[in-house]
Amino acid sequence: MSEMSAQREIDRSHMQVSDEVAIQITHMNKWYGNFHVLRDVNLSVHRGERIVIAGPSGSGKSTLIRCINRLEEHQSGEIIVDGTELSSDLKNIDKIRSEVGMVFQHFNLFPHLTILENCTLAPIWVRKVPRKEAVETAMHFLEKVKIPEQANKYPGQLSGGQQQRVAIARSLCMKPRIMLFDEPTSALDPEMIKEVLDTMVELAEEGMTMLCVTHEMGFARQVANRVIFMDQGQIVEQNEPEEFFNNPQHERTKLFLSQILGH
Amino acid sequence: MSNTHYVRSEMLSEQEPPAATTGAIGWVRENLFSSAFNSVVTLLALAFIYWLLAQALPWMVSPTWHASSLTECREIIAELGYGGACWGIIRERWLQFMFGFYPKELYWRVVLDFILLFVALAPVLFTHLPRKMLYFSAIYPFLMPWLLWGGTIWNPVMAALGFVIGYLASRHLAPVLGNLAATILAFVLPVIWWIFLSGPVADGIASVLPLAIQSVESRAFGGYMLSITIGVVAIALSLPIGILLALGRQSNLLIVRSLSVGFIEFIRGVPLITLLFVASTLLNIFMPPGTDFDIILRVIIMVTLFASAYMAEVIRGGLAALPRGQYEAADALGLDFWMAQRLIIMPQALKISIPGIVSTFIGVFKDTTLVSIIGLLDPLGLSRAILADAAWNGLVWEIYGFIAVMFFIFCFSMSRYSMYLERKLQTGHR
User: Fold this and answer.
1) ipTM, 2 decimals?
2) Where would I find the H helices in chain A?
3) By the CB < 8 Å criterion, does A65 face chain B?
4) Cβ of A10 under 8 Å from any chain B Cβ?
5) What average pLDDT does this structure show over B375-380?
6) Do A122 and B323 touch (CB under 8 A)?
7) Bridge partners for A209 per DSSP
8) Helix (H) or strand (E) holding B93
9) Which of A38, A89, B12, B126 is the least crowded, having the fewest Cβ atoms under 10 Å away?
10) Which CATH architecture has domain A21-107+177-261?
């Protein structure tokens, strides 16, 4: 996996982290029934940060980012996204969801709509953008993810990598200020992982605030400014990528890294 | 050199399949004569089909079209020398089979109504037709009963006005009163309008501007016209009600969910016949004396409720088949509940449920024959009356065969349409 990272130099000119806080999570807890999935999570994400969240399966990393756009409900603590607090107030939830883009492991494209319709649906219905403008925006982002020629096909006719790039374009069409990635490459064939990662790298170069749950450690080294390691529903260690990979502190982190990088 | 080493020097190009496996000969070999046993079965089946047609065709093409009684038929058949059907009864009675006792001089209204039905359905069924035709489809539900029952034009206009009131309330009251209040008023205001105001207002306008056509009693309705009227209305209404019930059953709101589950389970647990008896006899007991609640309307309501409960379960099956990710993607894009349902969930759930939905439609249409039991003269009810006629007493095959063929035509068309729709909505594997 890591060999994919060394392919090109990254343009870091736009990758500045500002002082402005994009996401503020304080003392957040979540339970599934009696199972304590997220335990006292504290995290603040600044605008322009690229954060990679790693950890063994079941450690709560997906749940954490799904709490940020309220696909999961947290039971205690506070999550503030772009200055809006997530509560059961539907207005706030809708506001945050339209500011935060999300890319899923299984793409979740709408199979009954064409690629173009997938991309224009939310801008037209949620943002009330005129159709013509929405189509222009969609084509712009489809060009950016390098599949404008597929615009009139259906998701079922595309490869996994192409579908995931469409999913990214679909999120971008809402002009989000924050992007969440939930294991975007885990369901892809090895040959397709790179095309998706390239798209994500480009996004990072443009200064997008990104939270990314992934096992692509090459991507983490190359793009992230912070790596967070989670286990048993808590943040175990976080550091800059260099330090994180070369000099892990916690025993659990060392074990994890030795297992995923050891072969 | 070891045997495990192999490098392909050039890639193979595509080749034609062997000739004997393609084309008509290939198809026959593959499908009819693929083995000795299959060949025998094929020949036996062909022999059976030949025997069946040899028996049935002469019976069907018997020259009894102009006979005016069973006795006359028998004479013609005796001359023929072989068994034949007695089609005179169909010639004499087919108009009655179509229109029941509807006044002859007003048949054109029924015919026009059903022609317009196809005009109204066309843009709904075939999406490549001009979208402007949908305006007519929206008017049709009010036009249809007016053409059938007749009377003043102001009744359907006032009924339509109720929907306009509901629409205006939901559209313009929301900024003033808030979403919830506007939604409630959008339901309550039209109901108040229909129950208390629309009647007097319609009468008032009619006395000033009497635009009316001759009205026809429900008792005169019969034959296929009755079956189609009940069937079409029940089918058209059961789909939206079924969708709402299916969503209600999945709702997080306890009361909505319990009401939906209770309704669905109650209706599914009761035979349709029972509901029809309730409609024909019991319902009048609960009505204030003197109210004239049309029997056909009562039957339509019962059949619709019955179909809706089944529809709800069919659609629930479609909803259950959708991956969780579709809901999450819709949520993550910021779509609210109704938008997500309308744009993402329902198009897919309904597509999955098409075979079940059409089965329910076909079932509803065939179930309309049950109304003969409560004394309405649908084709089956009429057939009993016709067979009681001394001239035709004793005929069975011709009349029931005719009814069966007519039902088959309607049901088979629905089934073919559903297959066309499934093919059209096929957008590659999911």
Assistant:
1) 0.90
2) 61-68, 90-99, 115-125, 131-144, 160-172, 190-205, 217-223, 241-246, 251-261
3) no
4) no
5) 88
6) no
7) A178
8) helix B88-99
9) B12
10) 3-Layer(aba) Sandwich (3.40)
